Amino acid sequence: MTKLSVNINKVATIRNARGGNTPNVKQFAIDCERFGAQGITVHPRPDERHIRYADVYDIKPIVTTEFNIEGNPKGISKSKPYGFIDLVKEIRPTQVTLVPDAEGVLTSNAGWDTVKNQEYLCDVVKEFQSCGIRVSIFIDANPKMIEMAAKTGTDRVELYTESYASGYATGREEAVKPFVEAAKVARDCGLGLNAGHDLSLENLAYFHQQIPWVDEVSIGHALISDALYLGIEETIHRYLACLK
User: Fold this and answer.
1) What contacts 88, CB < 8 A, 6 or more positions away?
2) Cα separation, 225 vs 78, whole angstroms
3) Domain annotation for the chain: domains and CATH numbers
4) 84, 181 in Cβ contact below 8 A?
5) What backbone phi and psi angles, to 5 degrees, belong to 159?
6) Which pTM does this prediction carry?
7) Residues annotated as catalytic (active site), given as ranges
């Protein structure tokens, strides 16, 4: 069964626009699980423009499913001299997803080069796994990069699905082909498989039909946007239906 992990960053973005605690990020995470989500994802960036490091501490005790923290292990919080690695090791989530975000990037826009960063990733993966944390590496649908990711000892890879989403409307068969190939390579390498970025109610079901062995999809922007029209309960139910 493919699990749905809801990325709640955009909820924090709305809150931060006005200050205070509306909407309540912690309560939103509770409600997502109550309505059927099988995981909660957060992606604290150094500038804390959405999820703040403090939010991660607040959310951890209330997550009853899986807690996934995304981010660049080289990241350092701007609010205090505290690193992403320190945060994750202290929180000890179910999973950490390593994302090579450059500072100031609007959103994640590339996977890791697991050839150039092989030694570094090996060290980071080992450090997190020594704390009992499952590790996933955010990666493009590139068989070579996936094969080299496997050599780091990571538990999973997360396929960066932006190109699938952008190509879906004009030719979904062609758009999904490299992801099916990449998913098969990951499976052959003994890796668990996650996917995320721009997956939506429009394109999720077809992606899942072609790669039904995906362990988890992490969805934020589209899901939160849909919730503005449908409500969060109905939205989560519709996304779960795409994964059946």
Assistant:
1) 69, 71, 96, 128, 133
2) 28
3) 3-242 (3.20.20.70)
4) no
5) -75, 130
6) 0.94
7) 43, 70, 197
